[in-house]
């Protein structure tokens, strides 16, 4: 029986800095369900500013940011712009493809690699694909 992976670890490019100056770079995001995408539309902050939708949505699906396990819109508001952009792409990757990994090809040797998108914010971990071919 195949199990569905529903949580994915990530590493932010810059990291969240709290009021005490602590830096949090590692976190976990779960797959979104229908209510995660519908509920923010009822939020008055989203009605006033549609761009706020991403803040509410990410605060619902990020289950951990460092030692923070109750991620709120205030936490997401405090992210650097590069981290917010990274998390939006990460959200799309895991929810559209069901994985944090995707295939890339080396421009020099044409070897194909599986890259873990969750690690792109930090250290890149490339794994040669089992179907790698050289041209």
How far the N terminus sits from the C terminus, by CA atoms, comes to: 37 Å
Rg of Cα set: 17 Å
Helicity range: 25-40%
Query: Which geometry do the CA atoms define?
Result: globular
Strand content: 25-35%
Number of helices: 5
**Major β-sheet profile:** 3 strands, antiparallel
Quaternary structure annotation:
single chain
Structural class from helices and strands? alpha+beta
Taking pLDDT < 50 over at least 5 consecutive residues as the criterion, the unreliable ranges are: 122-135
What is the succession of H and E elements?
EEHHHEHHEEE
As laid out across the biggest beta sheet, the strand order is 1-2-3
Extended strand count? 6
Average pLDDT works out at 84
Keywords:
alpha+beta, three-stranded antiparallel β-sheet, 135 residues
How would you describe what is shown here?
This protein has five helices and six strands. Strand 4 and strand 5 form a beta hairpin. The model is unreliable at 122-135 (pLDDT under 50). The protein is an alpha+beta fold and 135 residues long. The strands form two sheets. It has a three-stranded antiparallel sheet with strand order 1-2-3. It has a domain at 7-99.
């Amino acid at each position: 029986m195949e199990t569905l992976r529903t949580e994915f670890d990530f590493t932010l490019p810059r990291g969240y800095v709290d009021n005490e100056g602590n830096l949090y770079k590692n976190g976990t995001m779960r797959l979104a369900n229908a209510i995660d995408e519908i509920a923010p539309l009822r939020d008055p902050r989203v009605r006033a500013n549609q761009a706020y939708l991403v803040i509410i949505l990410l605060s619902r699906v990020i289950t951990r940011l460092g030692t923070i396990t109750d991620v709120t819109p205030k936490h997401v508001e405090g992210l650097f712009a590069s981290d917010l952009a990274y998390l939006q792409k990460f959200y799309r990757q895991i929810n559209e493809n069901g994985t944090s990994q995707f295939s890339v090809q080396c421009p020099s040797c044409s070897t194909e690699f599986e890259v873990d998108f969750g690690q792109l914010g930090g250290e890149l971990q490339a794994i040669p694909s089992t179907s790698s071919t050289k041209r």
